[in-house]
Every structure is written in structure tokens, then in C-alpha cells.
């Protein structure tokens, strides 16, 4: 032992279950281990160096050998190493009855007295019944006679463990009467040893426990778990028990031992765990986002219904599979991202993915994917988690916002263009009109004859100005729903001829209008003023956008219940991608110069509304550089009457 260092020796001594006390030849305490501190209540630093007599109760201070310690040394030879009953004083003053094994080494200055101390083993109370059949209080005493047997060291160690174990322990014989139990077992049942000892275990209420006892007495290990109701107190306690047979030296089962654990806290923790798992499961299952977890091999270990539905597969179909196995080629890219997160340990957040490009089903079009490592408390990566958020609505909202922004910007541009054009268009007839009127005014002052052409030109400018103002008013009425019609039977062929005559009277030379008159009169139910407005606008556009001259062809024919009017020009034409916007408010084709071709972009917009209010339709066919043809389809007079009933003829007063 000389080579063992002092600190290591003290660690060994403190690890011993038995209390150890060492004194020198002068009976001073040299050392006590941790178990001795707990047994005697004295801190090591306080007791070391003091006389052993501080541990001796006052009534045992005087011995004929001189001291209690010398008395024990003298008795040591007679006891032949067996334990001796020793009274010692606890630090609180309480007298303790302890077992002591005394040993001695050295002489004089090097003399050492070593005491190994233990609590006296408690002999449990027992009823007469088990003792009558030759049973001893503890199973190890079956090989000995009665209670006179002195336990061996191994038996005392077992008893020490038995009494101080943190689990409930009990012994039963064969027949199965309860022979011994520790305080922990009695406390689990809410009873006392006196109430439990001698209990016949085959008279319990719990049949499962009785079955375990029977199987144990047949030489087998058994286990029990459940809510046990005590026979003696009625206390219900969640318990887990392990029963083992006890055999004598001949291998015969002479009883059994039970180890009982109170699992109340465990049950509570399990319930809390189940609650937390249920909450987590509910969250995963009902969350509005997709969630999945992968092991370190990037195989699915969990996926919620929301994410599983994007492939049309149930969640169970994913478990144990990889993304490429479930999604095919699109899953390879996502799998690479997962591997990057696994290798770097860094999360990948809000990766924007097109669901359509990934081949996903359902209503998802766009989604954000986030991936992150799942770590143990020690930092190890246990797997990966991913959250997939449907961003279709947000994406559409962003697209709609951008569309509205573009439309707003376009509306601002159109407004600015309109104001510029309107200013130009309104000033264009006003300037020559003002000059014509000034000329006429001077001639009148000088008494000169007036030129009829000058008056006609002034009137033309005035009509143009009136038309522009009326277009603005009509556009406002259309937007507010206030454009009213006054329908009546109207000869459309006569109305077209009238508009052509008026138009030719004020147009400049260079174009010719050819009207292909129908063979029979054609009538419609319409507002003559508004229909005249439509015809005049189409003719003006045909003339305006045919700057190189040529013939404007106008035709009218009845086709069943529909009257079809066409106005064709040999003008500049309209780009195909612009034709669908032609009847929108303030729209002007991009091949039209605002300086070369006047107008506010309201004429066709007003025409479309007037035609629609008459139950008809208007459209265009055109090719850039090859002219345009406008079509107006209106129901015949008979068709209108069939829908609305007869209309009385206007009375002539």
C-alpha cells in the first residue's frame, strides 16, 4: 500500500459503504471517512485530532481497563473478529447502538486502532404464522437455526442494501407470506411494516400480482406494472415490480424477492410527453405550411399532410424514401440543397421554388423552402428539418401590384398625352375660326361683300370644336352611366346617305366616299342621333387615316336578323397587337402621330358603347399599310320588336 498516494487512499476510503474510524495509541481520532461522518454527524475537520472520548456517552466513560476503546481492544481477541455492540454518542447528543469490528496495528507511537461501524440490523416484527412453519425473518437464515444465527459480513451488507435501497424491497416465503420489507416499500403502499408483515400474498385484490407470485414460486422471474391498490390502506399507486425466486443451497424455491418502483413521476412525465407529442403532432398535421424531417441519410422520417398532398401521396408513402425517389428529377436539386445544409450545418432560408416546375400538384404555384439542421443537446446533427410555405397568394399579389403599378403609370402617361392632345385639338379649330371671324368682321366694317366659302369654313371649324366637346361630354356620360338613348324605327340606309352628304360638304379634296346602297330599305330600332354619331366617326376616321387619297367604301346589308354595316378605307392600317385595345378610352395606335392625325382617342370608345346599347357589336379587321375595315352589326327592326315588343309609331303633330 506504500505506493498508493494519500489522496487516492482517501478516495477509496470515502467510497466504502461502512463507516471507518481510525485512532492513534493516545486515542486521538486520526481519520474518519464519509460514511462515518454521516453515521456520527461529525464533520471530518471538526472531529479529527479530538479524543475518542467525545464519542463515548457519559455513562460509559469509566471502564476498569481505563477507557471504552481499550475495552474494545481487549474484547477483540475474544470475539475473534466478530462484531461487538458499541454505544457511541452522535454529535447531537443522541446515544447510538452500533456494531463495531475492531482491528489493531503497530505498537506505541505507530499504534493504530481501526473501528468499522454499522447500524444494528433491524429484526422485523413477524406474526406467529410464518414462524410456525420454520420460516426465519430473512431468507438467508433458512440454513440456520432460529434467530440465534449471527449474520455473516455478506449477509449484513445485503441487509444494509435492503434497508437503504431507494426502491421498495420485500421477501416472501413458500407459502407466500410476507416475511420482510423495507421502509421504502411500506411507504409506497402508505402502510407500516407491522401492518404488512405476515400478509398472505395470495389474498390480495389484484389478481395480476397473485399470478406473478404463483409463477415466481414455480421458479420463474415475473414482472408487473399497473395501478396497485393496497389491501391494508386502499392507497392506489402506479407501480412497476420485478419478482424473482429465492432458492436454498439445494436449489429449492423457498420464497421470493420483489423489487418495487413507484412510477408516479414517470407516468406523469409520460403523460406530459404524450401531451407534448400530441400537441406537436397536431401542430405538424394541421399547420398551414408544409413540414418534413429527414434522418442523416436524408430519408424522410416525418412529413405532414399539407406537404405530402403536393405529390398526391399519403404521408406514409414518404417514410424511408429520399426526395429524388418521391419527386424524380426535380427532387435531385432539392436533395443537393439538403446535402449542403448537412455538410455545412448552416440553414438555408426562403429558397423560392416554382411548384409547377417541380411537378407538384394541388393549388400551389410558388413556394418558399427553408432547410435547417436538427441538433442534439451536445450539438450533434441528428437530421434535417424543412418548412415549405405556399407563396402563391403573395406571388399573385405582387404580380397584381406590379400590374396595377404599370396600369397606373400607363394611366398617367395616357392622361398626360390626353391633356396634350386635347389642348392641341381644341386650339386647332379655334385659331382658324378666330381668323375667319376677324376677316368677316373687317369686311363687314368696310361694307365689302361676304365670301360664302369663308362662312362655310368657319362653320366647319365650329362643328369640329363642337364634336370634340361633345366627345368629351359623351365620354363622361358613359363613365357615369348617364348616356341615354331614345330609340325609334330608323331607316339606316337613309341615315348613312345623310351623314355622307354632310361629311362631303365639309371635307377637303383627295378622298371619295362610295356608298353601296342596299336593294331594299333597311330599318333598325335605334336612336338616330347616336347612330349618326357612330357613322360620322367611322367616316371621319377613314378619311383621316387615308392621307394618300383613295375611295372609302360603305356598305349596308341585311343578314337574317342582323344588319351589317362596313366602312373600309385604304389607309395606314392598325398593328395587330393594337387592335384589341382600339375601342378603349383615350387609346391611340402606336403608328399614329398626334401631330399628323388629330383626335382625343374617344371616338371609337363612344361608338362601342352606343352600338352595345343598341344590342349590337363593333369590330375591326386591319393590316398595317393596307387599310382597315370596321364592322357594325345591329339587330333588325323585326328582331328588336321580337325581344322588346311592338313600339308605337311616332306621332306627327
Automatic annotation (TrEMBL):
<dbReference type="GO" id="GO:0000155">
    <property type="term" value="F:phosphorelay sensor kinase activity"/>
</dbReference>
<dbReference type="InterPro" id="IPR000014">
    <property type="entry name" value="PAS"/>
</dbReference>
<dbReference type="Pfam" id="PF08448">
    <property type="entry name" value="PAS_4"/>
</dbReference>
<feature type="domain" description="Histidine kinase">
    <location>
        <begin position="421"/>
        <end position="638"/>
    </location>
</feature>
<dbReference type="InterPro" id="IPR013656">
    <property type="entry name" value="PAS_4"/>
</dbReference>
<dbReference type="InterPro" id="IPR003661">
    <property type="entry name" value="HisK_dim/P_dom"/>
</dbReference>
<protein>
    <recommendedName>
        <fullName>histidine kinase</fullName>
        <ecNumber>2.7.13.3</ecNumber>
    </recommendedName>
</protein>
<dbReference type="InterPro" id="IPR050736">
    <property type="entry name" value="Sensor_HK_Regulatory"/>
</dbReference>
<dbReference type="InterPro" id="IPR036890">
    <property type="entry name" value="HATPase_C_sf"/>
</dbReference>
<dbReference type="InterPro" id="IPR004358">
    <property type="entry name" value="Sig_transdc_His_kin-like_C"/>
</dbReference>
<keyword id="KW-0808">Transferase</keyword>
<dbReference type="InterPro" id="IPR013767">
    <property type="entry name" value="PAS_fold"/>
</dbReference>
<keyword id="KW-0418">Kinase</keyword>
<dbReference type="Pfam" id="PF00512">
    <property type="entry name" value="HisKA"/>
</dbReference>
<dbReference type="InterPro" id="IPR036097">
    <property type="entry name" value="HisK_dim/P_sf"/>
</dbReference>
<dbReference type="InterPro" id="IPR005467">
    <property type="entry name" value="His_kinase_dom"/>
</dbReference>
<dbReference type="Pfam" id="PF13426">
    <property type="entry name" value="PAS_9"/>
</dbReference>
<dbReference type="InterPro" id="IPR003594">
    <property type="entry name" value="HATPase_dom"/>
</dbReference>
<dbReference type="InterPro" id="IPR001610">
    <property type="entry name" value="PAC"/>
</dbReference>
<dbReference type="GO" id="GO:0006355">
    <property type="term" value="P:regulation of DNA-templated transcription"/>
</dbReference>
<dbReference type="Pfam" id="PF00989">
    <property type="entry name" value="PAS"/>
</dbReference>
<keyword id="KW-0902">Two-component regulatory system</keyword>
<keyword id="KW-0597">Phosphoprotein</keyword>
<dbReference type="InterPro" id="IPR035965">
    <property type="entry name" value="PAS-like_dom_sf"/>
</dbReference>
<dbReference type="Pfam" id="PF02518">
    <property type="entry name" value="HATPase_c"/>
</dbReference>
<feature type="domain" description="PAS">
    <location>
        <begin position="5"/>
        <end position="57"/>
    </location>
</feature>
<feature type="domain" description="PAC">
    <location>
        <begin position="222"/>
        <end position="275"/>
    </location>
</feature>
<dbReference type="InterPro" id="IPR000700">
    <property type="entry name" value="PAS-assoc_C"/>
</dbReference>
